[in-house]
Design goal:
Blueprint: H1 8-13, H2 34-40, H3 46-50, H4 53-66, E1 71-73, H5 80-84, E2 89-92, E3 96-99, H6 105-109, H7 112-118, H8 120-132, E4 138-144, H9 146-155, H10 162-170, H11 172-195, E5 200-205, H12 213-233, E6 240-244, H13 250-257, E7 262-264, H14 271-279, E8 283-285, H15 290-295, H16 298-311, E9 316-317, H17 330-341
């Protein structure tokens, strides 16, 4: 039996079927909230914002003050690791991330141990948030998964990933070496996050789409498994959520092969797929369309009710199939969360 203050999210991740699912939203920290936009004006740039523990903690806590959410996710970015490994990273206003030339992989391998120290401010953010967050609300740490991070490192910006996928075919040894560096750096980073107060760890494989089954095994399943094994070897038993967005039918392969406690599902996930994953012993999360959250109205209510009806007979976490869009009306977010929580 769980303690009364055990966060609802942790109960779901332990395999409990609850009276209603815990709810949190990807990218709930920032973007759509006016108080976040005001806070953002105080930062020199986005990376400085992420590395300022007081400001990042405030961004993490803002949605927790507004909404009856069951979990906070630390305000950070998946591209902090490439920067910590020595690649130039910056953000163009209105354009998104930009990365400089890929450093020699051997040089980045030499920076793995130092990279964790260069991310120490994210650990400080987690400590501040955990001290201020109610005990019944969970705190989530995260990292970008190696393949997704590698696509940015190889292409220098967000794209359709076709160049990175071509690179995976033409230069398999070089890609494997890069992924190995990212596995080691990411595992160390997540161990630090857990020791700093993160009660859940999430791997964001944002670009798992269009991968052949053998490639998916090599660049998604294998690196995710290696990260979790390294974290466990460090004595960390914090539960993992894996998110192979866009993987389609290969999500079930992921659920069967990767030792995560939960699998996050994107918008296209079917009811029966989610139920099969639950039947296989995993918690599921997702898969509300972020465009529907932005649109609002009766269709939003109906879809929320439908998702809960189809999945809440097993361990389930209510969430989106992708992140909150910046122009999502705050009242739609509030409406959705209150429909799930009933308060």
């Amino acid at each position: 039996m769980s303690e009364p203050t055990t966060p609802r999210l942790l109960r779901a991740l332990a395999g409990e079927t609850l009276d209603r699912p815990p709810v949190w939203f990807m990218r709930q920290a920032g973007r759509s909230l006016p108080e976040y936009r005001e806070l953002r004006t105080r930062a020199q740039d986005f990376i400085s914002f992420c590395h300022d523990p007081e400001m990042a903690a405030e961004a993490t806590l803002q949605p927790m003050r507004r909404f009856p959410l069951d979990a906070a996710i630390v305000f950070a970015d998946i591209l902090l690791i490439p920067r910590a490994l020595g690649q130039k990273v910056w953000f163009e206003t209105g354009e998104g991330p930009r990365l400089g030339p890929l450093p020699p992989i051997e040089a980045m391998a030499d920076q793995v141990e130092a990279s964790t120290g260069r991310l120490a401010e994210i650990g400080e953010t987690l400590k501040i948030v955990r001290a201020k967050l109610e005990p019944e609300r969970a705190l989530i740490g995260f990292a970008g998964a190696p393949w997704t991070v590698a696509t940015y490192m190889l292409e220098g910006r967000g794209s359709d990933r076709s160049a990175a996928r071509t690179y995976a075919y033409q230069h398999p040894d070089e890609l494997d070496a890069l992924l190995d560096v990212l596995v080691e750096a990411t595992a160390r980073y997540l161990v630090m996050q857990a020791k700093s107060g993160a009660q859940v760890l999430k791997l964001f494989e944002s670009w798992a789409e269009h991968l052949a089954e053998d490639v998916f095994e090599r660049i998604v399943v294998k690196p995710h498994t290696a990260i979790i094994e390294k974290v466990r070897a460090a004595g960390i038993d914090t539960p993992f959520i894996g998110f192979p967005r866009g993987a389609g039918a290969l999500v079930e392969t992921y659920a069967a092969r990767v030792p995560v406690e939960a699998v996050a599902l994107d918008t296209q996930a079917s009811a029966v797929m989610g139920q099969r994953i639950q039947d296989g012993g995993k918690t599921i999360q997702g898969a509300l369309d972020n465009l529907l959250l932005r649109a609002g109205g009766p269709a939003l209510d109906a879809r929320i009710d439908g998702l809960i009806a189809q999945w809440n007979d097993g361990p389930y976490i209510f969430n989106l199939g992708h992140g909150v869009l910046p122009d999502t009306p705050v009242e739609n977010i509030e409406r959705a969360i209150r429909r799930v929580t009933g308060n």
